[in-house]
Design a protein that fits this description.
- The structure is a single chain.
- The chain has 635 residues and is an alpha/beta fold.
- The chain is elongated, with a radius of gyration of 33 Å.
- The protein is built from seven helices and 50 strands.
Length: 635
């Protein structure tokens, strides 16, 4: 049933024509104003077409004067004059930013206002309009069009009720209408509402609730309408919706599900919004680490997953033919996309958001993807999927990463061994020694770059067959707290864990393990790990552990280094600089670690070198140094 009479429709058409005229006029006049202002500024004096009055700069148009900027001052009120020398002031197209203005008075001749005007007044609390103005009206400090169809602006510091009820009869909430409001907690819409404009509620940081009246006529929501509403918890949409813009709930980190009445163009499945054959919005606050797109869907829409910080793996069905490159922007946890598409979907946009994501395709489609436009620039793999890991046979990575391939071969790997290409199992990675691929047991000897995600991983347990940690592989993984190395790890590269500021423990597994190969830990490997508390280095039978320069410098919390074998500083360099560092050493090696050059490398005095036996028995009296939080990670 149509809710509007013929007269309403005529008024609505009039309003639309007014807005179209205003928009065109704003663009044209602002262009002219910029040119005139530039010319006037060259002479540093007003011209016939430029006027300055009460701190306002204006330029003359065919209809009258328009405000183009304001001079900064400490005034709390800004009053737009009616006229200058008998010529009316008809528009406000620009103001200089002011933190002091709290009240804006709009004079009777104003008939167009640029929405950017309000961006310049972050502490505005009230907008008032002359009663004789034919284009605008103000009620309780809120700006509307004179026909009361459009809510134009609620000031950022609006001091009314935290529950804002939009008047019945309002059909349109204008672009940026509530944007940056600091106080409103709840908004109630009337049944007459038809459209919500672009960024209408952007950055309303206290907004928790949006209520649409029963029988709502809402048909469209503009781009980024609720952008940055971080505590908005849920949103129920009416079935009348026929158009939803992009990024509508981007940054709404508390919205975990979107619900919608059935029977319309859009529908919801498990809280994810779809439109016919398109995935439209995957909520920012949805905390699933994995998601499988519905079968039959053809399109992944623009900004569909934008800003979700939980999802790590997306499974895309064979039916998908189009993906927008911005779909995964700022999805920092996203690590893997498993593509069931035999033919590469069309991609549009900037591929930069995909550089840290692995795309896993069927073996039969691999050649199509690596030769397809845009796809060829991304990380495409044909891999084995086992639980939360993707594996690739070592022999298959030679053409993708020859340096890693040759390094692993030099440490004893074979083409039949495998490496990890992706992990999406949460915050803790437990890497086994081997895995069954095609019915054959394969050793897990390494991992591909970007296999692990710095935004999610906290604990890594490297399996017994991991051979090497590459240079800078975990550089800057700030959430990483615990690392356990296996008995076959022989190389930890330069700056491998540099600036892992949350790392507490870096341990070689010495429990019933035998090490028979020299181990090299590169220079600066753990530099800047400011929370690092304990390090354990193993005994290598008939060999040694060689540490590069500055291996543990700037590790200011380092309290214990357990040394079960001979550890040598490369070129007698400085290894550590930590106050109160305690070296816990094997009994047979105490004399070695008490040598002057070794203590100098570690930056310790003789009273900070004790044996494992003395430490465990408490005979040294040093156990009091132990951090009370260590126990949760000790094995």
């Amino acid at each position: 049933m149509n809710r509007f009479s013929d007269n309403d429709k005529k008024q609505q058409g009039k309003r639309i024509r007014i807005i179209q005229t205003i928009t065109f006029s704003v663009v044209l006049v602002m262009l002219i104003a910029c040119i005139l202002l530039y010319v006037a500024s060259l002479n540093e004096m007003p011209s016939d077409d430029i006027a300055v009055q009460d701190g306002l700069w204006l330029t003359k148009t065919e209809d009258g004067w328009v405000v183009i900027r304001s001079e900064k001052n400490n005034h709390t009120e800004l009053v737009i004059p009616e006229s200058i020398n008998g010529v009316p002031v008809v528009g406000i197209y620009g103001l200089s930013e002011s933190d002091s203005v709290q009240r804006l008075f709009i004079s009777k001749n104003i008939k167009s206002i640029s929405e950017q005007v309000f961006d310049a007044l972050p502490n505005l609390s009230s907008i008032e309009v002359d009663e004789e103005n034919d284009y605008y009206i103000s009620i309780d400090g809120v700006l509307y069009d004179s026909l009361m169809y459009t809510l134009i602006k609620v000031p950022p510091q609006y001091g009314g009720s935290v529950r804002f009820t939009i008047s019945e009869g309002i059909t349109y909430v204008y672009d940026n209408a509530f944007a940056d409001n600091k106080n409103i907690v709840s908004v109630v819409f009337p049944s007459t509402i038809i459209a919500i404009g672009d960024r209408a509620f952007a950055m309303c940081l206290r907004l928790t609730e949006v209520i649409l009246g029963s029988g709502s006529s809402l048909r469209s929501i503009g781009d980024e309408a609720f952008y940055g509403c971080v505590i908005l918890k849920s949103f129920d949409l009416p079935g009348s919706i026929s158009e939803i813009g992009t990024g509508v709930f981007y940054g709404c980190s508390s919205v975990s599900a979107i619900r919608i009445e059935s029977g319309g163009k859009y529908y919801s499945s498990d809280g994810v919004l779809y439109s016919e054959d398109t995935l439209v919005i995957y909520p920012c606050g949805k905390q699933n680490t994995q998601y499988e797109v519905l079968s039959g869907i053809k399109n992944i829409g623009k900004y569909a997953f934008c800003g979700n910080k939980y999802i790590m793996c997306l499974v895309v069905p064979e039916s998908v033919t189009y993906m927008d490159m911005d779909a995964f922007s700022r999805c920092y946890a996203m690590n893997a996309v498993i593509l069931g598409c035999k033919t590469p979907p069309q991609l549009e946009g900037w591929p930069g958001y995909y550089q840290d994501i692995g795309f896993f395709v069927d073996e039969t489609a691999y050649e199509l993807y690596i030769s397809a436009s845009v796809w060829s620039e991304l990380n495409i793999f044909s891999a084995y999927m086992v639980k939360d890991y993707a594996y690739i046979k070592l022999g298959d990575i030679a053409d993708k990463d020859d340096q890693l391939y040759n390094s692993l071969l030099s440490y004893g790997a074979t083409d039949e061994d495998c490496v990890i290409a992706g992990f999406w199992g949460g915050t803790e990675a437990y890497i086994a020694s081997s895995v069954t691929l095609d019915g054959v047991q394969s050793r897990i000897v390494g991992y591909m770059p970007r296999a692990f995600n710095s935004y999610t991983i906290t604990d890594i347990y490297f399996g017994g067959n991991i051979l090497m940690i590459g240079d800078k592989d975990f550089y800057g993984f700030e959430l990483l707290k615990y690392v356990l190395f296996g008995e076959n790890t022989v190389y930890i590269g330069k700056s491998a864990f540099k600036d892992c500021t949350g790392l507490r423990f870096a341990l070689f597994d010495v429990a019933d393990k035998s090490y028979d190969k020299n181990i090299y830990i590169g220079e600066n490997a753990f530099e800047g790990c400011s929370a690092l508390y304990k390090v354990v280095l193993p005994d290598v039978e008939s060999g040694e552990v060689l540490l590069g320069a500055n291996c543990f410098v700037l590790c200011n919390s380092l309290k214990e280094v357990w040394l079960y074998g001979v550890v040598i500083a490369e070129n007698d360099s400085i290894i550590a600089e930590s106050n109160n560092l305690l070296l816990v050493v094997a009994e047979r090696l105490k004399g070695y670690y008490l040598s002057e050059e070794v203590m100098l490398s570690w930056g310790v005095e003789s009273d900070r070198v004790i044996t494992v036996e003395d430490y465990n028995s408490g005979a040294s009296g040093m156990e009091g140094d132990k951090d009370e939080n260590v126990g949760q990670y000790e094995r």
